[in-house]
Amino acid sequence: MKIDYDAIIVGAGAAGNIAAAVLAEAGKRILLIERGKRRTYAEDGHRDHLRNHRLQAYGFNTGPEIDGNPRVFIDQQGGRHIVKPHQDNYHVNAAVVGGGTFVYGGLAWRFHPKDFRMASTYGRPEGSSLVDWPISYGNLEPWYGKAEHEIGVSGDGNGDRNSGPRGRDYPMPPVADNPTSAHLRAGASALGLSTFTPPLLVNTVPRAGRGACIHCGSCVGFPCPSNGKNGTQNTMLPRALATGLCDLLTETVVEQVATDDRGNVIGVDILEADAAGQLTRRRICSRIVILSAGAIETARLMLLTRTEREPNGLGNNRDQVGRNLQGHYYPTVFGLFEEPVQDSKGPGVSIATTDYNHGNDGVIGGAMLADDFVMLPIILWKSGLPDDLPRYGLAAKHFMRDNFTRIAQIKGPVHEIPSADCRVRLDPEVRDKYGRSVAQLSGMTHPETVRTADYILDKADAWMRASGAVRTWGRKQTLRLSAGQHQAGTCRMGETPETSVTDSFGKVWGHDNLYVCDASLHPTNGGYNPVLTVMALAFRNAERIANLL
């Protein structure tokens, strides 16, 4: 068997591009495969100021393509729904070089030390799959610092009184205050809450040959016009390619992980289309395969790869692959003020408190609370208007015209309590345009998640009112499947193959050369945006792999 590469990485997103850079800079030959395109703002972004991942009804400014990529969603009554990427319950993630980091807002939170010890801290609720991580905050702290400095985070390292200890400050100062933060800071002070400027993967000063944020407001959901938002596509991928040891293959689908007659991993099988659209299969061999395709697609790829040794999918002899799917519930409160409180200058998010992340009476965990990125008027109309206001007609138009600049919001991602029944399977009937079984999504998070979300909603409402809002509104959360852009947990790391899919470095149990490197590894998903944790784990685990190759 001819070995083409030292490592093949499937998925050029938040983790995959980091792994590629670490391995290539260590002298390893790498093939990085991405099903999406390699896009730039100059080529695509300047023409599209509507489609984004917060307004999915209009489609996306990244992949996946709406046609040919269905999933099946099983509702609480057992009903089957074939859904497309732009429809509810698909739980889409960006398919593009850079993954979600190409269009994210860039909140760069470290998980709290207790986030790694949720079961030890709170106990395990009946019916849940809540566990501790096999590593601690202390194990990951140096890698958090590396991610912050290698990719670029702005913030105040001394601002968060509730955070874990840190070895060094952020490499850039925080973003500036705005009218919203001035109001919310006064309200927080009245309630005795500590506040600070959230950390962001955004340049507040020119850095690494790229400019600073120009405050355009096209932040979350869009590529950055100034290239001042730091994703892995404009930080780590260029480093990987500059070595001459990393090949990037875009718009390419991996059919399955390739195995030999004994079930050992030997590379990947890819599908390529000729000029006439005819698909052909090609096998590419490597010493190691790293799956970085996101929690749903990584699990799907493992389930698609069946051998005599593992007839239910790679690493799945104990029925763990695809379980514990989670994301984040996002309780949100809107507040109407008498005077303008937002100016639509980006990034928008400018103030946060972590006082409710832990230590709350009667609930498990909590959430970080912050204001939000600049919101498009059409997104406010779609998802932020009061329930008693008509969506169409003069009343809606007058409300939007008179009040858009006078509305602020507070929101935060709550600690979800995972359930083993919330999972990814292969659907037995539906195929994608390549003939592969599609992902079937089913189950619900644990009811404790709803209790925590309701608690956080009340705290956000109190903060908004204390800040001077004359009217507030929000929506209670309901028990449901959760995944979305913060999808995680389907190949959780652990200490034993009976209850996990990989070890603490992402190596799949039963295989010496198959790794998972994305949020699939997360046993729990924290009360923060998870991307910095994904990045820190990628640096840590890729260095381990480089030392083994």
TrEMBL record:
Domain of life of the source: Bacteria
Domain 4Fe-4S ferredoxin-type: 204-234
Residue ranges of the region described as Disordered: 151-171
Single GO molecular function: flavin adenine dinucleotide binding
Alphabetical list of SUPFAM superfamilies matching this protein: FAD/NAD(P)-binding domain (SSF51905)
Assigned keywords, A-Z: FAD, Flavoprotein, Oxidoreductase, Plasmid
A matching Pfam family: GMC_oxred_C
InterPro entries: 4Fe4S_Fe-S-bd, FAD/NAD-bd_sf, GMC_OxRdtase_N, GMC_OxRtase_C
Family the entry assigns: Belongs to the GMC oxidoreductase family.
Record's protein name: GMC family oxidoreductase
Gene source species: Rhizobium sp. ZPR3
Taxonomic lineage of the native organism: Bacteria, Pseudomonadati, Pseudomonadota, Alphaproteobacteria, Hyphomicrobiales
